[in-house]
Each structure stands twice: as structure tokens, then as C-alpha cells.
Design a protein that fits this description.
single chain; 251 residues; alpha+beta; five-stranded mixed β-sheet; three-stranded antiparallel β-sheet
């Protein structure tokens, strides 16, 4: 049923909604005009598909057990260096604002912008200037946080502080995602004046397809536009709910 039309099911079709479709909406999210219209036409207040994943309870911030090799180091990251062989030491060093760590008896070494997978080799080269016959093991300690902006039809718009490991999808679940009036099918990640990716959350929720996801960088903007055209599915369907139609030109 598209916005403006409602199909009344027979009494036998009014089966209980599935648990995933009837999860309670956050108290701050009143029914939309279209939900109320469908309720008047069918006698049922249908949930908006996908909103059940963005309840009042937020997901915990990203806590990675293993930093990916492609992770880019930046100011505020903590690097743990363990050397052994002709000498032994263990140091926990924080990357300064200048992008460097200061290694005892070696001096400052530039590491910001390096991939984590390249860090061990870079530090080995720096220590080799002063030391011989040693081995090095490098890991990450406490990771920095980054600031991003959530704008548009978001449940909790504004400036957000997230883990430097967060991706677009992580950030949406951490911050509450789209409001009841926001789109789940055309969420934009904007960076330095251009759109990096457009995310269709239906692909992730229904199919586990995260191909539209991207790692976040400081200053990124997540823009959630208003929801597009919607339809209501009631009766003998697996998940009675209100669904947003894909945008024109979307697959």
C-alpha cells in the first residue's frame, strides 16, 4: 500500500506481527502522518521497517580486539613497542599532535599517516640507526577518538565523538540512526565537499550486505535525507510494516 492508499485485510489475515517488526519504538518517536493514516485505514499501527534496530538503547562504541593492517595512525593513538635481543625494553608511546612518537635514546619518529601493517618495519628502520641484533614487536594500545557530524533527519543530530575504527554503519547504530522521518535507503557519507558513499540500510538489515559501508575519518558528515515514498504491507506477509521504496535509479 503506497502513501495515500490502504488495503483493509480480512479478519483471518490479521495475524500477529512478527517480533522483529513490532519491537517498541523509542518514546521520543511519535507515529508519523503515514503511520496514522495506515492505522485509520486498517486499524493497525504498523512499525517502520528497520526502526526496531535503532531503539532507545544505543550500541556500545566499537571495541576492536585486533586493529586491521590498513588502519591509519594519527595523533592520540597509543603505540606499544617491545624490543628484545641485544637490548630489551617495552614502551607505550602516544602519537603527538605533530604525528610523531618519541622513542628513548632514538628520538622522535614520524608515524602519523602510516598503515598499522607498515608500522613495525618503519620503527625497525629507525631503531637500526642506534641498535643492532634486535627484534621488534609492535601493537596498538588505546586508540584515538574522532569527531564527526550527524545531520538531516537523524534521531540525535549533532557533533559526535566515535572510535577511530568506526565505520558508517557502526556510527549509525551507536548514535541512534535515522529518525522515523528519515531515510534508511539513501544515507550519504560526505567528506571534504564530496559524497564518499551512499548507504542503503535495507541491504545491510535484510541481506547482510555491507558493501556501502566505509571507514570514517575526522570531520566526516553523515547526512540522512527525509524518507522517500513509502508503502504499507499488511495481511499474510512475513513482516507487516511500512517500507521505504528504493530511490529512482537505485538497484
Amino acid at each position: 500500500m503506497e502513501a495515500g492508499r490502504a488495503a483493509e485485510p480480512s479478519p483471518s489475515e490479521r495475524a500477529p506481527d512478527s517480533a522483529s517488526a513490532t519491537a517498541p519504538r523509542a518514546e521520543s518517536e511519535p507515529a508519523t502522518d503515514f503511520q496514522r493514516f495506515v492505522q485509520l485505514a486498517t486499524g493497525r499501527l504498523l512499525p517502520i521497517y528497520g526502526q526496531q534496530f535503532f531503539s532507545a538503547t544505543r550500541f556500545d562504541p566499537v571495541q576492536a580486539t585486533q586493529v586491521p593492517e590498513g588502519y591509519l595512525l594519527g595523533p592520540g593513538d597509543e603505540v606499544v613497542i617491545q624490543a628484545y635481543g641485544s637490548f630489551d625494553f617495552t614502551e607505550r608511546l602516544v602519537v603527538g599532535r605533530d604525528g610523531r612518537v618519541s622513542i628513548p635514546r632514538v628520538g622522535p619518529v614520524q608515524v602519523a599517516g602510516l598503515r598499522f601493517g607498515d608500522l613495525e618495519a618503519a620503527l625497525t628502520r629507525s631503531l637500526s640507526v642506534s641498535y643492532r641484533n634486535f627484534k621488534l614487536a609492535v601493537s596498538m594500545g588505546r586508540l584515538r577518538s574522532i569527531e564527526i557530524y550527524l545531520v538531516g533527519q537523524a534521531r540525535t543530530p549533532g557533533r559526535k565523538v566515535v572510535s577511530s575504527l568506526s565505520s558508517l554503519i557502526n556510527a549509525l547504530f551507536e548514535t541512534g540512526g535515522p529518525s522515523a522521518l528519515g531515510s534508511m535507503r539513501a544515507i550519504e557519507l560526505r567528506r571534504k565537499g564530496r559524497t564518499v558513499t551512499t548507504l542503503d540500510l535495507y541491504e545491510f538489515i535484510a541481506r547482510g550486505n555491507s558493501s556501502g559501508d566505509q571507514p570514517l575519518e575526522p570531520g566526516d558528515i553523515i547526512f540522512i535525507p527525509p524518507a522517500g515514498p513509502q508503502v504499507a504491507l499488511v495481511g499474510s506477509v512475513n513482516t507487516p510494516a511500512i517500507y521505504e521504496l528504493p530511490r529512482t535509479g537505485a538497484s
